[in-house]
Design brief:
By secondary structure, the protein is mainly alpha-helical. The protein is 53% helix and 9% strand. A 3-stranded mixed sheet has the order 1-2-3, covered by helices on one side.
């Protein structure tokens, strides 16, 4: 999908913030639209939810919200149940292969930019 110039600029700004470490370590954990980002091993969830468990749950929740903000014009009721779980899948895939939170975040941003 082709990005409008403003979305492209927002992605570039987000990438710059991540590269500079300008993201919060503490942030309200994300839960909604079939995605849960948490550092709580006993966090409850529903069948079908994508659960991202990480000590970096605050930063990753911030990232989810930043990506949603960039894509807000496209996130209607039905699309959000594809968008948010996809972010969770990408986060889990990256976290299983890489311990560097900045690398994880950048990879997810790049993939969402390409796919959405």
């Amino acid at each position: 999908m082709t990005n409008e110039p403003s979305a492209k600029n927002e992605y570039e700004e987000l990438i710059s913030k991540i590269n500079k470490g300008q993201f919060p370590a503490e942030h309200q954990h994300f839960g909604g639209a079939n995605l849960i980002v948490t550092d709580e091993p006993d966090r409850s969830f529903h069948h079908g939810d994508v659960v991202v468990y990480s000590i970096h749950a605050g930063a990753l929740s911030w990232l989810v919200e930043e990506l949603a903000s960039i894509k807000s014009a496209q996130l209607n009721y039905s699309v959000k149940y594809e968008f948010y779980p996809r972010i969770g899948e990408l986060l889990n895939e990256e976290l299983s292969q890489n311990e560097d939170i900045i690398d994880v975040m950048l990879s997810v941003v790049e993939t969402i930019d390409r796919e959405w």
